[in-house]
Amino acid sequence: MKKVTILLALILSTAVVAEDKVQVTSTELAPHLYMIKGAGGNMAAVVGPEGALVVDSQYEHMAPQIKAELESKQAGVQIKTLINTHFHGDHVNGNAALASGAQIIAHTNVLTRLKADAKFPVAGLPTETFVGEKVLSLNGVNLKLVTMPVSHTDGDLVVWFKDANVLHTGDLFFADRFPFIDLNSGGSVTGYINNVKLLISQIDDKTRLIPGHGDLMDKAGLQRFLTMMEQTLAEVNALKAKGKTEDQIVAHGLSAQWKSWSWHFITEERWIRTLFKA
After folding, report:
1. Residue 259 and residue 43: Cα distance in Å, rounded?
2. In the structure, what pLDDT confidence band is assigned to residue 21 with cuts at 50, 70 and 90?
3. Is the CA virtual torsion 217, 219, 224, 227 positive or negative?
4. What DSSP state is assigned to residue 127?
5. Which of 12, 19, 152, 218 is the most buried (most CB within 10 A)?
6. Beta strands 33-37 and 25-30: pairing type?
7. How many CA atoms lie within 13 A of 114 on its CB side?
8. Which candidate, 87, 121, 120, 80, places its Cα nearest to that of 106?
C-alpha cells in the first residue's frame, strides 16, 4: 500500500509540474475579442480601454499568466466582469485569483454548488446569478448569456458574441473527444444531446465555436460531435437490448471508428458507462 501511495504521489506531482509548464495563448476572433487557451477550460476575453470581460477562469495558479496575456492586449487592463459557464474546478478555481472584486456572473445553481464547497474561496463566488438570458456589452462587443436545460451539469450557460458570430459553448462541446457528462451534478445524456442539437440549429457554417476543451471549431465540428454521441448511444442501447450488462458492453467496446475520441479523462470505458446510465 505504501508503494502505491508513493507512486500515486509521484504521478500527481508530475501532472502538476506538466500543467505548470502550460503556456497561455490567445487567438483574436474579432476586434477586442479573443479565445484564450491554457490549463483547464478554454476562455474567451473581451479586452479594451473599458477593461476586460472574461469567460471562465481556469485554475488558480494560471492567473498570473492569464493576466499577463490580457495586459499584452491592453496595458494595465482590469477585469470588470467574469462569467462562469458552469461550476467545475477547471473553469472556476481561478475566480478569486483572477477577478476578486469583479462582477462574477453564473447560473443560479453554480452559486449553490460552490457555496456548498467549504474550500472554495468566498472572493471567487458569483456575485450575480440568473436563469434565462442576460445581455452585456463592453468595448463595443455585445454578448448574450443563455442558461441551458440540464446537460453537462444542472448549471450550464453559453455565451454568444452575436456580432462576431462566435459562441462559447462551455462544456457542452468537447472538440473531437468524448465529453464528460456529470451525472452526479444534474447532468443528463439526453439533455446534453438535445442542447447540442439546439445549438446546431442556431449557428451557421461561418460560426466559430469556442469549445470547453479543444481547438477552435465550426459547425461541422459540432455536428461531428453530435453524430458521435448519437451513434455511440445507439451502439450501447443495442447491446443493452440484447441483455448485455454494463461490464459486458465495456468489454465489447465501441466501433473502431470511435477509438480516437478516447482521452485521458474520458476513456472509452468511462464514456460507455456514462451512456449505459442514459
Report:
1. 28
2. confident
3. positive
4. S
5. 152
6. antiparallel
7. 29
8. 87
Strand order in the sheet with 128-130: 25-30, 33-37, 43-48, 51-55, 79-83, 103-107, 128-130
DSSP structural state of residue 120: S
Per DSSP, the residues of 62-117 read GHHHHHHHHHTTSTT--EEEEE-SS--HHHHTTHHHHHTTSEEEEEHHHHHHHHT-
pLDDT tens-digit map of 155-176: 999 999 999 999 999 999 999 9
Residue 130: Cβ-neighbour burial (10 angstroms; 0-12, 13-18, 19+): middle
Q: What distance lies between CA 175 and its chain's CA centroid?
A: 10
Compute the average pLDDT of residues 229-258.
98
| Contact residues for 134 (Cβ-Cβ < 8 A; gap 6+) | 105, 144, 145
Q: How many helices (H) and strands (E) does the chain have?
A: 9, 12
In angstroms, the CA 120 to CA 126 distance is: 11
The C-alpha R_g of the chain, in whole angstroms, comes to 19
**What are the contacts of 272-275 at 24+ separation with CB within 8 A?**
272/232, 272/236, 272/246, 273/246, 274/181, 274/183, 274/189, 275/189, 275/232, 275/233, 275/236, 275/237
- Cβ 108 vs Cβ 85: under 8 Å: no
List the grid coordinates of 54. Answer: 472574461
Give the separation between CA 228 and CA 196, rounded to whole angstroms.
Answer: 12
Q: What is the pLDDT of residue 20?
A: 54
139: buried, middle or exposed (CB in 10 Å: 19+, 13-18, 0-12)? middle
The Cα diameter of the chain in Å comes to: 63
Report the amino acid identity of residue 1: M
Q: What is the rounded distance in angstroms from the CA atom of residue 15 to the CA atom of residue 18?
A: 5
pTM (2 decimals)? 0.92
